[in-house]
Design goal:
- The protein is of the alpha+beta class.
- It contains two helices and five strands, in the order H-E-H-E-E-E-E.
- A five-stranded antiparallel sheet has the order 1-2-3-4-5.
């Protein structure tokens, strides 16, 4: 997976321009939790799209029926036009298709 093609270029948190992306970043960095970790922030097309990449620590049952790892990397992409909700992408190439 080529992140540059998908998400553009890496940026610093203070470069975020999209309001929802700023709020999600603030939530991630203001909470003291062990279930998520900020990895990267990207922008594409002069900030028409901004993406926050995080690692989720997933709570799973003891007997796993679907191959979801204890740690999964996801991308949350925000669009400047805000017509649609943020897009969430699983970044593991072999992430299983799930029923929902």
């Amino acid at each position: 997976m080529n992140k540059e093609n998908l998400f553009g270029e890496l940026i610093s948190p203070d470069s975020l321009k999209i309001n929802k992306a700023q709020r999600v970043f603030q939530y991630i960095t203001s909470t003291n939790n062990s279930y998520l970790e900020l990895l990267e922030i990207w922008q594409k097309n002069n900030h028409s799209k901004e993406t926050i990449v995080i690692v989720l620590n997933v709570e799973r049952p003891q007997k796993v029926k679907i191959d979801i790892k204890r740690k999964e990397t996801i991308a949350i992409s925000f669009s400047i036009d805000d017509i649609f909700p943020p897009q969430v992408l699983m970044l593991r190439e072999d992430f299983p298709v799930t029923p929902h």
